Amino acid sequence: xxxxxxxxxxxxxxxxxxxxxxxxxxxxxxxxxxxxxxxxxxxxxxxxxxxxxxxxxxxxxxxxxxxxxxxxxxxxxxxxxxxxxxxxxxxxxxxxxxxxxxxxxxxxxxxxxxxxxxxxxxxxxxxxxxxxxxxxxxxxxxxxxxxxxxxxxxxxxxxxxxxxxxxxxxxxxxxxxxxxxxxxxxxxxxxxxxxxx
Length: 197
What we know:
Blueprint: E1 8-11, H1 12-15, E2 32-34, E3 45-47, H2 51-58, E4 63-65, E5 68-73, E6 82-90, E7 93-105, E8 108-117, H3 121-124, E9 127-135, E10 138-144, E11 147-148, H4 153-159, E12 163-166, H5 167-173, E13 174-175, E14 178-187, H6 189-196
Parallel strand pairs: 4-6, 8-11
Antiparallel strand pairs: 1-6, 2-3, 5-14, 6-7, 7-8, 8-12, 9-10, 9-14, 13-14
GO biological process, one term: protein ubiquitination
Protein name: E3 ubiquitin-protein ligase
GO cellular component, one term: cytoplasm
């Protein structure tokens, strides 16, 4: 299990208003990307190759290693909006798991979980991620292609292209206010087969 301190969580009272989607901002150098950390409104811009070091040094986001890990998000009862994030390193790449508690409809908070590759959309197409919740003889799996951090996490969540849990479903899988999410990343079979040809 990932220790609690590996999960960076911040509530709405700490972060103020969520930062706007970076897709609508003008970027002078097309090779520069804005900060991908959804927890802070951070003005940093840099090349994709230095995003990981920025997240680790500036935002103190830790990296978990291995193809299969378990991420433990604590304090699920915190008010919305709240984000939990962790970096996951495997298969020679780094991924960013974002778990967000947000009210899509007033008075009805939901949990949204997605995996973002710290890389290009073309690179992201080479991977598949699986999120799994498993507790009290219940199992729930979500499997998809990760999105690139060059895309806006807000749009991924608003599109619903992620694991979505309502509060009662999240409670079925939580243990004393903590949610354990199994994460597995593999290379896409389609792209692996194309590479062999």
